[in-house]
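ok here's Lysozyme inhibitor LprI N-terminal domain-containing protein:
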Amino acid sequence: MAYRREALAFGAVLAAAVFAPGLAEAQGRDRCHDYATGMVAQDQRARGLRCPGWTSHSNYDNHYGWCQKQTPQRVQQAIANWQSRFQSCEFAASGSPAAKADAQRCIAYGDEMVRIDQAARGQACQGWTSHANRNIHIQWCQMQTPERVETALTNWRRRLRAC
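and the structure:
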């Protein structure tokens, strides 16, 4: 539970630093410093959980340098992607026998929902209410039964076809 609070706090700090770079600078903060510091801390937590397949690193300078070359939106997407991977690891480390399968299922759900949203926006669907935030889709999936997730996915696909 403590890891979950830390992960959420990490995401909130990084999101604020990236989405409000003017605010971060006004407060005397450097958004890339916030990003690099957060990524190093997340990497250390993930390694502490022994996340299988974890490929990030704890090299502050590399994270900082990468951030400086990216748009705030690209950095935010990277944060969301790493948060999803960390949350999947955290879920798998929870001891649930179905955790690994659930994590993969929810990642697939998040990817499919992003694809559906992008297709709907590309078709300029009227009244479209979904979004392309993969991380939020994955989080929602992890709190639902597989049946509810499948029903939701079927409904979103139906809405896209009707668009």
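+1. Residues 22-94 form one domain.
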